[in-house]
Amino acid sequence: MSYVWGSPSDKRAIVCGGRKVKIPTNLRDALQRVRHPSKVKRFWADAICINQSDSKEVGHQVRQMASIYSAAERVIVWLGFGNAFEFFDQDEDLFTLIQRFCEHPKSSTDSEESRPSTAMSDASFETYSFFSALGDLLQRPWFNRLWVVQEAGLAKSVLALFGDQDQEINLDDLIRLAHKFIVEQPGVAAYYGIHPSRLFLLFGKRSAIVHPSSIDKLDFLDLLNVTRMQLASDPRDFVFALLGHPSAQINGGLIIEPDYQKSHWEIYHELAITLLQQSQNLRVLSAVRHLDEDNLTREYPSWIPTWERTSNINSVGVSQYRCDNTEAHAGFPRSLQFIRASNMLQVHGFAFDTIDEYTNEFRYGTGRRSVGKSFIDEWPIAAAMALRAFSTMSAQEKLYELVTALVCGWASVFWAKQGLKDFAAFRLQMLTRTSDPKQAGPCEILPEGLAAAEEAAEEGSAQSFLADCESMVGGKRLFTTRSGLIGTGPTVLRSGDICCILFGGHVPFLLRRVGSAYRLVGEIYIRKVMQGEAVTDFVLGDMYRSQIFNIF
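== Heterokaryon incompatibility protein-domain-containing protein ==
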């Protein structure tokens, strides 16, 4: 059984083996749904089959999770009561219904993908009801739970149950059809809350459904990063729930033992050291996220990722795939030493600049978003264009630098042309959807002029720009440096923080001097140093000097 545990206090009693046992209400509901009135059926559920009060047994069983779920005949997923599809013809099975809409998205929505708002207004009541129901189903708590990544990912077969009646669907079919719709109609899918599932990107058995030609090459750091928005009640499970993945195996053993007698701080500390020892780069440092000043200044080492579930801030330098496209260190090998007595990390590199000005944080949207008045405050576009570093640029230079920074260089070579059109549409909507257009300052956010912006926006999509940028810059700030460079970085950055190239690091990092040592503020993106340009100046000139950074 795969289900959401829910609140620890939300439990019900069942009779099991002749005794009363208190179990999560969700599990009780699931068992009532699947039990047969006369035949014995055999199930495995962690809340019953593992002694949850014995931390040693829990750790031992977690070690066995991969074999338990991969050996099972089938994994049954309980998504909960409620059925938003109940208004459709009950004689049509759910798979056929979903197939009918998802495999013919253009006829269903009767609109171009680039105009999702038009698709919403033109959609029939049946179409609107269906995609709202599908969005409701895919946003159920089960899809956000971390443990289900391996529970569903390792299974031979996965059956999803939900609703008050006998609603069920093969989970592979559900995700395959939803994925097809997301690929063909991303703007419309985003409006209805139909998002790609991480469950089908991480394990070979499932990933082949949506990516038939893909080969699973994720390492454990990739896995930790990709699942960073999946939830678990115990912070130690942010690591332990992934130990069934092939990447968790190193030299015939697990990358870390599931020991519930250790604190989550001890687990994160041990894992960070192991990840550094197993690699020749600094990708693990890119996973560090300090969400506020208290987080940055606490006694815990600033260079250790905590894997906290408080935001979905995208990293530039964690992913192996993205690191193939960035070489800020220009191939300089890593030179690193860990001082265990002081939890100090000694890294060789050089400082090349300092933070000068910066904007407010670019905030995340929630749910179904349109580009409206709230974005005047939430997305400080006008404030960014008013920074001193932009003052000497032409309108086109300003727009290109800003767009590239907002997507952190992602696909910038082939995306930039369309991105500029989408950015024009986005900025025009910022103006037209506010009660007072002058509040945004047309001259500030339309440096190319209204006519040029309108011409570019004809082939642009504000919603596409929002989706592209929010995934990369949400939770970050845009900044400029003393020498006029432009970039994006963590929300805790401040004027005077030091921009550094750390040898072995694919991206630049931001450090803050504290006495004779440094705190790691986080990774940063600066377009003009991502391919080793600063290292060229370091090697050929005398602008920068090598030093050892003691990071605590």
